[in-house]
Design a protein that fits this description.
Layout: H1 3-6, H2 29-42, E1 52-58, E2 61-67, E3 70-73, E4 77-79, H3 85-90, E5 99-108, E6 119-121, E7 126-131, E8 134-143, H4 153-165, E9 178-187, E10 194-197, E11 204-208, H5 214-230
Parallel strand pairs: 4-11
Antiparallel strand pairs: 1-2, 2-3, 5-8, 5-9, 6-7, 7-8, 10-11
Length: 249
Amino acid sequence: MNWRQLEPALSREYIRGLLVRENGHTSNPLGLVSALLEHFRRNGGEIIRARALGFRLDGARLTAVRTDAGDLAADAAVVCAGAHSKPLAASLGDRVPLETERGYHLMIRDPEAMPRIPTADADGKFVATPMELGLRFAGTVELAGLDAPPDFRRARILLKQGRRMLPGLAASHAEERISVWMGHRPSLPDSLPVLGPSRASPDVIYAFGHGHIGMTAAPMTGKIAADLVAGRPSPIDTAPFAAARFGRM
């Protein structure tokens, strides 16, 4: 099978490509997270909705997580709050140069054309992905922090590029068929995550900063964090991922 047979919806302007075999994708991220949450609950987990503000320590031992709903008694905690992890690490003396690398996507419900597998345009730096709810165009990088409002013109640019990639798409779509979204990638300057115990307490474990590969790296990160909390040896050496690699900023 040649690539035009594999992806007949693609524009004839594409003359070469690279097929990455055994590459997977999630067709419904919300569905995946919801299933994991339900599994957690079935196994005795409890969800508490509160904003974490910091930690209470007795020497180097953790006694509680401070939240806007009061203290939650704890003898171990994992900081895995994505782009919101930076102030929590700072409260423990680890000043990590984490920045939110904002990304946008645009979804078309009931698209007229769609690739069979996730398809990236190397020049346009965007990806077209078939999803349960439609066709998603995603890409772009915006360094604007956590508080700046979204600039959804960036998402609309993806639609313009996507129509060039997939000429079978309509030249215009009703607004109710289009949805846009912006998210915060937690990124670090060396492109490595922060994994391992905090500076102030071995009871607080860091597991954040995965940039563009959070979902890909999540299973191994979860195993590492679980082993460290349980006092088991980590399956890998976490020293290269320690927050201390950034020094005392």
